[in-house]
Design a protein that fits this description.
Elements: E1 4-8, H1 15-24, E2 28-33, E3 51-55, H2 61-68, E4 71-76, H3 85-103, E5 107-111, H4 123-138, E6 143-147, E7 150-151, H5 158-167, E8 170-173, E9 179-180, E10 183-184, H6 185-197, H7 199-202, E11 206-209, E12 215-216, H8 217-227, E13 233-236, H9 239-249, H10 259-264, H11 288-292
Parallel strand pairs: 1-2, 1-4, 2-3, 4-5, 5-6, 6-11, 7-10, 8-13
Antiparallel strand pairs: 9-12
Helix pairs in contact: 1-6, 2-3, 3-4
């Protein structure tokens, strides 16, 4: 695909992987961020003139339209776990979709999440679901991509638990039985880029992306501890205790779990039985162990110089 692909949220966790695949295809990338400086690290990954930067607030429809003008494809990666969910996930997504349509873009990729549902009790899940509806209404040929929990060197999930396991002798586990299907961020990034570059194949479809392993929360945290050679005592918290912690402390900065996250954890975060998945993109999902050696070793007692565990 010739032209420019505008990527909103390209400076985030997933964005760098989307950009890498777009760069490899020879595509020019317009990086749209509230503060473009947080995405300057992308420039050395690209060829001269392959990256553009634009400052934009998703809630400013006129500015979004200006930034998207001239784009052959548009990608929206923006998502938040706290704050004004409706402004970002619904209004922002609607503005991007309307701007993509006005620009005559051939493709729009909206990254949502497994669990997105307008009827969800969680504000995150509800707003993501309403955002999907807003995008479909403004740009019917949009591709919706719903990943499960993404893992990778820069994530805020696996790294958080690995850091806690390194420091704490006892590690409480909230919602220990809920099922997760962690997916490698690089696989998701490739799928997003392919969807943007090939709307004839992927336009108008919805995909759910998960890795090859379905693990309970307890199993996942136990795996993290084993891989990093840390041995805290894992204590599965009964739901009433976890619920109380979320309700009483979830509002505080740095809280272990927010009330909205507690609500999201009431349902398994796994790919639906009949959903289109990574295989539709020709991608073989990488398991956690495939990338752990070059990443989680930093949490071992002697870092990368520690003996390698059998995983």
């Amino acid at each position: 695909m010739a032209g420019v692909v505008t990527v909103f949220g390209c400076g985030g966790f997933l964005g760098r992987y989307v950009a890498q695949h777009l760069y490899k295809s020879g595509t020019r990338v317009r990086v749209a961020e509230r503060d473009p400086r947080r995405a300057y690290f992308l420039k050395p990954m690209s060829a001269v003139g392959q990256t553009q930067f634009a400052a934009v607030d998703l809630t400013d429809a006129a500015r979004v339209t200006q930034v998207v003008a001239g784009s052959s494809a548009v990608i929206n990666l923006v998502g938040i776990l706290k704050g004004d969910f409706d402004a970002v996930h619904v209004e922002g997504a609607r503005n991007i979709a309307a701007a993509a349509r006005a620009a005559g873009a051939s493709a729009l990729v909206q990254v949502s999440a497994i669990g997105a549902d307008p009827d969800s009790g969680s504000d995150y899940g509800r707003s993501k679901g309403e955002g999907e509806l807003a995008v479909r209404k403004a740009f019917p040929g949009a591709t919706i991509i719903r990943p499960s929990i993404m893992f990778g060197p820069e994530d805020q999930f696996i790294n958080r638990f690995a850091g806690m396991a390194r420091l704490l002798p006892v590690l409480p586990v909230v919602r220990p039985s809920v099922k997760l299907q962690p997916v490698f961020v690089g696989d998701v990034g490739k799928a997003v880029a392919l969807a943007a570059l090939d709307p004839k194949t992927h336009g108008g479809k919805t995909y759910e992306l998960g890795g090859p392993q379905v693990l309970s929360m307890h199993e996942l945290i136990a795996w993290i501890c084993e891989t990093t050679e840390r041995h805290p005592t894992l204590i599965d918290l009964p739901d009433p205790v976890g619920k109380t912690i979320a309700a009483l402390t979830g509002w505080a900065p740095g809280a272990p779990i927010t009330w909205d996250q507690w609500l999201m954890l009431q349902k398994d975060n796994v790919v639906s039985d009949k959903a289109r998945d990574l295989k539709a993109f020709g991608i073989s999902a990488k398991p956690l162990a495939a990338v752990a050696e070059g990443w989680l070793t930093q949490y071992r007692r002697h870092g990368r110089f520690a003996a390698k565990p059998s995983i």
